[in-house]
Amino acid sequence: MLRTHRGNAEVDLSVDPIDSDGGDSDLDAGESARDRPEEPARAETSLVEPVPGEPAAIARIDGERALVVADYHAGIEIGLRYERGVELESNAAVRRVRLLGLLDRVDPDRVVVLGDLGHRIGGTEGVEGEELDELLEAVLDRVPVTLVYGNHDTGISDRFEPEYPDRFVVTEPTGVRLGRVGFVHGHTWPAREVVESEVICVGHEHPAVRLEDSVGGGRKERAWLRGPLRREPFAEHLGVDIADLDWRDPDIVVFPAFNDRSGGTWVNVEGQGFLSPFLPDALVDDATDAFLLDGTRLGPYRSV
Q1: Can you tell me the distance from the alpha carbon of 152 to that of 185, in angstroms, rounded to the nearest whole number?
Q2: Secondary structure of the chain: what % helix, strand, coil (to 5)?
Q3: What are the domain boundaries of the chain?
Q4: What is the Cα–Cα distance from 191 to 176, expressed in whole angstroms?
């Protein structure tokens, strides 16, 4: 049994998966959408569903199925060497195999990378560049890629868009809406079209929780955050009246980092703050739940 860092309640991580029938959340811990029997009503509402056990989701975009991952951070080991003096062997091949394995499992029509495909700012040369070359060659041979521009993605557009003009697209930093789903990395405020989506997918935060056992041992687990949004911060930032927004009561889905060597925002540890300019102000705290990758619902992230 493990317990969460803040409360005294113990959480059995082998039970309490996210309700596969929808329940209080649109996150789905069941089998992939393509393997399930047709459920028209659910398909209409579940625009974004996680891939069980993985830091990845499927988004339904105008008849397409997109595999969405955030914060890949290619070449992170080189960054850690220069930034922190930490020496680690490269996990480039492991990351690439994991992503290609998800393509096999999900069989999407495209991949959306929710920012920070690379790690070192402007680092599209050397070892990081080699990792990006091999990764994009393998992925783009199978599906097109949309990169939602993140703060670590400087130089990627200049290097790869000319090479793959019909297969690789980099968005503006303020994100993009594809169908009814908005995508923004999260280091900037989202564009109005993103705000006026039905679901808003965000990276950048690398959300995680600290879980403790009964003798005080603990571990970090990557986590999802999902819940409703408040419109007031966005209307104020955009300089419009609340009534003028085409507000669709969107859920926000904050993605865990794909790269398990990256740091992150510990959502249940006091003193940890969010990185995004619109978080946590735009969240409805008591309605924004944290989930583990296996689908376990931990409840409102503030009380985990």
Answers
A1: 10
A2: 25, 25, 50
A3: 2-303
A4: 7
User: Are 189 and 174 contacting, i.e. CB atoms less than 8 angstroms apart?
Assistant: yes
Q: Give the confidence band of 31 by pLDDT, cuts at 50, 70, 90.
A: very low
> What is the chain's Cα-based Rg?
19
Nearest in space to 183 (alpha carbons), one of 195, 166, 168, 165: 195
More confident residue, 153 or 5: 153
Q: Is the distance from CB of 190 to CB of 175 less than 8 angstroms?
A: yes
Is the predicted pLDDT of residue 84 greater than 70, yes or no? Answer: no
At a CB cut-off of 8 Å and minimum separation 6, what does 209 contact? 4, 5, 220, 221, 223, 266, 267, 268, 290, 292, 298, 301, 304
Q: What is the rounded CA–CA span in Å between residue 20 and residue 297?
A: 12
Cα dihedral across residues 47, 74, 208, 53: positive or negative = positive
Question: What's the rounded Cα separation, in Å, for the pair 287 and 285?
Answer: 5
For residue 20, the model assigns a pLDDT of 34
> Residue 18 half-sphere exposure, CB side, CA atoms within 13 Å?
27
Nearby residues of 297 by Cβ (< 8 Å), 6 or more positions away: 16, 17, 18, 24, 25, 289, 290, 291
CB atoms within 10 A of CB 64: 14
Residues 50, 28 contacting (CB under 8 angstroms): yes
pLDDT digits (tens, 9 = 90+) for 91-117: 789 999 999 999 999 999 999 999 999
Count the alpha carbons within 13 Å of 17 in the hemisphere toward its beta carbon: 15
- Return d(Cα 252, Cα 280) in angstroms, integer: 11
Tell me which amino acid residue 104 is.
Answer: D
Phi, psi angle pair for 263, to nearest 5°: -75, -165
Dist CA 133 CA 150 (whole Å)? 18
